[in-house]
Amino acid sequence: MRPVVRYLRSDRSRSTRLLAVAFVVVAVAAAVVAPIITGSGLQRAQASGTTVTGTVSGDNAYDPSAGQPNPGAQNPLPPSVTVDQTTDLTSQMVHVTWKNFTPSSKKGANSFYDVALLECRGTNPGKAVVNGATLWNPNFGDDCFTAFPNTPNDVSVGNRVTALTGANGTGEAYFHIETAVENSFLSCDPTHPCSLLVVPNWGGVQPSGKAPGDPGVNCKDHTKDTTGLGAGFYAADAALSLACSWGDRFVFPLQFAPTPAQCPSAAPAFAAQGAPMLTRTVSLFQAGWCNDANKLSFDFDSGTNEYLARQSFLAGGSGALTSAADLAVVNRPPDPSAAAARKFTYAPVVTSGIAIAFHVDDPQTGQFLTDLTLNARLVAKLLTQSYALFPWDCHAASDTSTQGPDCDPAIKGNPRSVFVDPEFRALNPQYTDADFPLVAGGGLMDFGGFLPLVVSGNSDLVYELTRWVASDPDAAAFLAGKPDPWGMRVNTYYRGISYPLDQFQVLDPGYTAPPDIHGAPGKSTMQNSWNPISGLNLVANSLVIDRPSAVQYSLISCPPNTSPPDKSCTWPRMDPEAPGTRAVFAVVGLNDAAADEFPTAKLVNAGGRAVAPDTGGLSAAVSDMKTNPDKITQFADFANPDPKQYPLTMVDYALVPTCGLSDGKAAAIGSFLDHVATSQLYGVTPGSLAPGNEALTGAQVAQVRSAQQAVSTQSCTSAPPDTTISGGPPRSNVGSTGNGGSPVSGHNGQASVPSGGAPLTTASGTPNVGATPSASLTQAAFGIKHGDADGPLGAWLPVLLGLGALLVAGGPATYLLSTTGAGAALLSWLRRITTKSIPSAPPVTVADAAVQQPETGQ
User: Fold this and answer.
1) Backbone CA torsion sign across 514, 518, 519, 523
2) In terms of DSSP bridges, do strands 610-611 and 583-589 run parallel, antiparallel, or are they unpaired?
3) CA geometry: angle at 11 spanning 8 and 13, to 5°?
4) How buried is 138 (Cβ within 10 angstroms: 0-12 exposed, 13-18 middle, 19+ buried)?
5) What's the rounded Cα separation, in Å, for the pair 749 and 530?
């Protein structure tokens, strides 16, 4: 049968929308005293998806269970593929599912009847053509991007996926859609459509070089699908895209959403900084607001973390605005001593939060687990490198044998990983050893592959996460040195660490074995296992490709017979984890988790309940929040026993000036606040509230309106100073200056030492055996510019900051949109969005050529 395309529309019909509008009209009068009605911004269920039934050739899948290889028996049911979102796309994950396919199988080293997923230029990609002749060798055509994740290439980090089909004929994969910003080869944007190609290989005799219909091609003959000498193995991955396989393809045209790059080329009305966690949210706002009736255009630099954004904003003083930031978006108010010279107030922008996301495989199915629970003490263990790793040398506390030479004495006797921690098992009793990858040791698990991906540098996210850990009596006692009920102790290098922190601390210096006979350093241990990553977007992107932050424990690049070794000795970053053995955690914002469809952990709150970061958990947490002395900003009450609250809920606030602005700038910031108040409806279209957020309550909207009035009239009033912040004493706006670890960022896919550290090689090129690898690594740059990335603060800012704060470069700006939901602001329904073309982006260079990933499938 020929393909039948069916679009899965949002489950709100036109009549439902009219009823919703009527309901909101009735509710507007009560908006000041009642919370705005919200739907789930953390789900993708209402996104506009597409199902294609039937292949291009019209063939059904081969059914091996029928025992008829020639002519092969076909499944009587038509094959179909569903993609959960095909419109209003940007750089994001989509979920692809299929049914009535040929089940995948394995024979020796070969995998058969697999499925390839690729992104291609145009809406009808074809095979490669040379001199007018179509090439029927294994190729996916000139229009398809074929690089696997993290495979070196000139334009992108790679997004091709090879996936498996289960025994019941169904399968799924998560596919990362790339736009022109991330992939100059594809150049997908609103005026350059692309497509998602799903190509199964159901076998059949399909010799290379033969076109469909040529003599020797027989797609119904399956006698050589999995056998053959010279010719054969036609169902193997090497035959994907040959005559039969290509004919069985599914093509999904993709439509891309406008981004701020499509805004009219007017000068920005003001400059805003901060809130790396909200890059997706503000980008979606910008793309809509610049094209509505007010044509509001502003510059938003999420590449400046909240600490620097506060500094930049406060530098404006009480007179005419001279700082780089006319407005700052932060979670925590500034230290009152630094804020005394500035007249400003606060306006809530959005409620969101922190997620502990994960990709943990069920090794029996190769699919992700989706239900994990963590508590504050388990998070403390992960953030303090308290698992033993290296199981061949570190023995359990009950083992009286001598600890091996590679065992770090700071963690001796502790469990090897979180997955064998009795506390983790007690919180997740639904699982057994068989449900976790390499639970007995081996692979990247031994070297810290499961330790969480975290952002480097100062961040309000870090402060709030560690404040939650510190608020838990069991976690606090563990950090102070008290063992858990099963005898596990904190890594002694972290014992007594003072939480909350402004940046993650890497304190275990590890151990390096003596040099080998060639003078190369021996194995390194804990110092290689955990390395913060430059840029919150790159934390999420590392989880997308399942790549831990750990680096290799030995200098694998050293030539074995060179004495002394040459300068090529490096500690490369670990490869991405392979399907079936993935076990990676990441601390990300809820915006990132929603757009990339990450599974997220339930967290145990003070009421003893494990709660997911959904709209109910966020809404309960907002209701339980306490208020700072400024009488506006709020913070999560971790001690509240409400069993419904998700503890890591955060409200982000705009710091807005109430004095010294020109009339035009005051009007523009007032318009910004008006848009905030009326853009609390979830959606994928520009101007909507991005997923991963909770809509503002009626009381919060009233605060926005109050701030709008103060800014518009330039009242020169300020909110009361905060003598306490988040229940504790005010802290410096710059943040901690301790050892935050060496960020994964940078150069040539190898370790280097930050300023002041010991070099890895001597002047003659001989490795310095006393040096500690610091893991300053190249991170393939795809994604958004985020929190610790260098922002355009101007040449004066380093002087302003005194000793200075190091800004590190994040990836190129991208804008990730997601799904629809229910919302509450009437004017958001009435906004009409127009789109304009986006100019082609320059190519993204992938510097990390040392790491290759042949395949990732899910």
Assistant:
1) negative
2) unpaired
3) 110
4) middle
5) 16
The residue behind tokens 């022109």 is 180
Q: Tokens in use for 73?
A: 């028996």
**pLDDT reported for residue 560:** 55
Give the separation between CA 94 and CA 194, rounded to whole angstroms.
Answer: 14
Sign of CA dihedral 447, 452, 454, 460: negative
Nearest alpha-carbon partner for 259 in 277, 284, 296: 284
Dmax (CA) of the chain = 85
With beta carbons less than 8 A apart as the criterion, state whether 427 and 610 touch. yes
Distance of alpha carbon 166 from alpha carbon 108, whole angstroms: 18
DSSP classification of residue 200: E
Rounded to 5°, angle at Cα 182 from 177 and 185? 90
| 439 vs 448: CA distance, rounded Å | 13
> Does residue 504 sit in helix, strand or coil?
coil
Cis, peptide link before residue 415, omega less than 30° from 0: no
In this structure, what token pair is assigned to residue 71? Answer: 């002519």
Kindly state the DSSP code that residue 162 receives in the 8-state scheme. E
How far is 224 from 695, CA to CA, in rounded Å? 58
Each residue's pLDDT tens digit, 370-403: 999 999 999 999 999 999 886 556 666 555 556 6
Nearest to 660 by CA among 315, 147, 253: 315
- As separate numbers, helices (DSSP H) first and strands (DSSP E) second, the chain gives 16, 25
Over residues 442-491, the pLDDT tens digits come to: 555 677 889 999 999 999 999 999 999 999 999 999 999 999 999 999 99
Helices 460-471 and 376-383 pack at an angle, to 10 degrees, of 120
Name the β-bridge partners of 172: 97
C-alpha distances in Å from residue 675, one per residue of 41, 69, 650: 18, 63, 20
Cβ neighbour number for residue 612 with a 10 Å cutoff: 17
- Please tell me the number of Cα atoms within 13 Å of 706 on its side-chain side: 17
Q: Within a 13 Å sphere around the CA of 829, how many CA atoms are in the beta-carbon half?
A: 17
CB atoms within 10 A of CB 762: 12
Q: Which residue has the tokens 């070297």?
A: 447
Kindly report the pTM of this predicted structure: 0.77
Distance from chain centroid for Cα 54: 33
Scan for tokens 């499509």, then name that residue. 262
Q: 32 exposed, middle or buried (CB, 10 Å; 0-12, 13-18, 19+)?
A: exposed
Could you give the CA distance from residue 647 to residue 622 in angstroms, rounded to a whole number? 10
Per-residue tokens: 388: 């033993």
Tokens for 385?
A: 């490198």
- Return the residue matching tokens 């439509």: 255
Quick count: other Cβ atoms within 10 Å of Cβ 214? 12
Picking from 341-355, 403-417, 709-723, which range would have the lowest pLDDT averaged per residue?
Answer: 403-417
In the numeric block, which tokens belong to residue 187?
Answer: 């150049």
Helix axes 376-383, 473-480, angle to 10 degrees: 30
Query: Is residue 244 within 8 Å of 219, Cβ to Cβ?
Result: yes
Instruction: For residues 280 and 90, give the distance between their C-alpha atoms in angstroms, rounded to a whole number.
Output: 10
Helix axes 663-678, 698-713, angle to 10 degrees: 170
What CA–CA distance (Å, rounded) separates 347 from 324? 20
